[in-house]
Amino acid sequence: MTEPLPKADPAMFSDCGDTPCPQPVTADPANANAVQDMSVRMRDNPAEWAFVRLSKLIQEFEANLNKDEEIGATVVGLPGDGTMQIVDVGFWGPDLIMFFGRNVDGKPVRLIQHYTQLNVVLSAVRKPEDQAEPNRIGFRLDELVKSTNPSLGRP
Fold it and tell me: Quick check: 88 and 97 in contact, CB under 8 A?
């Protein structure tokens, strides 16, 4: 049995003075309220700029995977070969990019990086045997980008 996917706990975000800190944004449908309420635009939020470009790179990478593969990443410091299965990507503006996933043992992993230190090696990992279809996060990420920045969705 696999453990539940890691998620950012809203209770961990404190008040930043008179203005609450922005909430993390991910492509997870359970985070729809944060997506709709997001008022920080990319010009003010370098983490969102990095997220938009990263989502395009992930979608492009996933287009070349076979039906038994999902997107993964190699991360220095993880046990074993340092590979994690990526199940979601998000940002917490103005400066953090977040990767949610599982390590090779199925344990939850959360990688948090400053947007200026973003170094991710995308790799193909075998989808879990108990999963009928591979998880393709690129589409969800692209939908998030288009819903929060409609001008990016126009041809």
Answer: no
